[in-house]
Amino acid sequence: MTQPVPIRREPPSANAGHKPLRVALELATAGLPVLPLRAGKLPMGNCPACSGYRCGGRPNMKTPGPCACPAPCHGWAAATTDHDTLLSPAWADAWRQAAAVAYHPGGAGLTVVDLDTPAALRWARGALPATRTVTTARGEHWIYRGTMCSVNGVRTGVDIKSTMAYARWRGHGTGTLTVLPDAVRALAVKQSASARRPSVVTVAALAGGGECRHRTPIYLERGIAMAEQRITDARSAVHVTVYRTFLAVLSTHGRCGCLTDTHVARLFTAAQARGESARHCADAWANARTALGM
Question: In whole angstroms, what is the distance from residue 70 CA to residue 65 CA?
């Protein structure tokens, strides 16, 4: 099991606010896997050799798979603590373009509860135990010790970032890290249940009373893999492709209880690797559900 890395409360170096690479090296030394972000809080795009994941790398994997690309090509999966990699010529252009630094919370044994609205902050202060907090542009990051599946939109203005996700580095924050509470884990369970069962449909209610065919592992796995590939192969109109792909997945698998938060995370990660933000993914998913009357 990955040992959580404590985030030390200490002032940044004098140049930390001016050089993303220097910030990244400091964080890597502390054990946080880091990657550069371009404008808009987006990871670097795939290099020509990895475009469309022709390299075989998969953004939903804990590592880029068989891809040996030395550049930071694979979103959160490129995050590293290795100084030689961060300082390598292959990463130099990415750091020149970098507008900010991100880290992989799950890789450091952490979970970030991203609170984006005043209402979300009020809710967290009444419902969650106090922990390390970091001020963001729109709210706060509440950081807990422990990992879980990343899920967006568990409540209005609330995202969970842990495994297979990245969070923008906003500083060391204040307060003491506390253990990831069941109240946060429960949010993901509730959101996942909602995604899996958007309407009352049971196996017993199906014609013939047989087992839902969508629960056949191979059938479902092929469907999710095809959806991921459709998104990663998009050369233009990425927003439209993501929405239509979500719509297709939900229309086929969304009413029988077969989708899990892991499946949804795979689709969201593929979309984010093509430049979509977490919020765009959540909105596209919600709009697809609404269009299908879910």
Answer: 13
Q: Is 112 exposed, middle or buried (0-12, 13-18, 19+ CB in 10 A)?
A: buried
Nearest to 195 by CA among 265, 128, 242, 138: 265
Look-up of token digits 């204040």: 174
Q: Is the dihedral of CA 249, 52, 268, 65 positive or negative?
A: positive
> How many other C-beta atoms can be found within 10 angstroms of the C-beta atom of residue 148?
20
Q: What is the pTM of this model?
A: 0.63
pLDDT digits (tens, 9 = 90+) for 60-107: 444 455 577 888 888 888 899 999 999 999 999 999 999 999 999 989
With 0-12 / 13-18 / 19 or more C-beta atoms within 10 angstroms meaning exposed / middle / buried, residue 219 is middle
β-pairing, 110-115 vs 42-43, is unpaired
**End-to-end C-alpha distance for the chain, whole angstroms:** 37
Instruction: Quote the Cα angle for 141-131-81, to 5°.
Output: 65
